[in-house]
Amino acid sequence: xxTKIAVISALIAxxxxxxxxxxxxxxxxRKYSKKIxxxxxxxxxxxxxxxxILDENFNAKKISAEEKQIQRNEVAxxxxxxxxxxxxxxxxxxxxxxxxxxxxxxxxxxxSNYEFIVGEDNAILSFRGPKKTKKELLNAYxxxxxxxxxxxxxxxxSLSIGDKSSDMRFGKSASMDLEFRSTRQFGKxxxxxxxxxxxxxxxxxFVPKNSKVFAQENDEIFLTDFTLGNxxxxxxxxxxxxxxxxxxxxxxxxxTVENGERILDNSKGNFRVSAxxxxxxxxxxxxxxxxKNADDRRVRLTENMNEGTNNFLFGGKxxxxxxxxxxxxxxxxxxxxxNQARLGNKYGFQxxxxxxxxxx
Length: 360
Fold this sequence. Notes:
Strand content: 35-45%
Number of helices: 5
Oligomer: single chain
């Protein structure tokens, strides 16, 4: 029995030595340790009470020393079995908690107050505290990554993507966004409307048709044939810092009650539509050409284009989505290329998908 109590005491001591941990695993371990501590303390008190009666009977010469020792052994054995039985009832919980603790220690999660959750909070991946309430989930931060096919149209109102008049190859020309955003509920806790704003990076890559390349001369940019070798790739890239503002409308709102308040349950995926605007400032424009020369050597040419593009970007966006996925359409109301660019179409238009949300 002493061995059993020593093992249990060691487990209790180990758990209390980690009392500063606040993650879920440690809370569970402390909970189970307290249960075992309570079992041992309670049964030992009962056992000592019976030992006291045996001592009184021996002092009163009601039993002999030999009878006292036999009865003490019987009492000790009885309470050892009682403790073992009650501890066995907690065995499954203890084993699960211990396995989780070992897993966290191996994966380096032992000190973390956060956890990764897949497929919750309208996100592919969430990184948040395990005790975060559903009310707190209504206002969140997220990182968003989006990819889209981009083309140029004749005017700010035109939606003619893939138009033959465009000098760019639709399907090869692409845009990428990386945004950090804050989402807030608009109105009451039951409101299915949200607004979100943030900042990020946008890169537009235009690939010319007919193996053309961009060139600049006399403060103008234009497309021309490539004559230096065997052309492999030709592209024009605009880099922007952007600020998006969106309004999101939940189409299938679900509700729950938390701490006596009726609130929108935003913990799972939902269907939604969104509409918004974005603005941006151009950071850099580059022409990039990759070709093989007469010696069959691969050559890469990168040239900054100081003229021909607008420094500011403004446009609108609409999207439909479910969970962590959105399909969107973006239309630039300001032209990508200005009057110093000899191009027929100058306004950006793209269709794409937001591939990843990471909620924080």
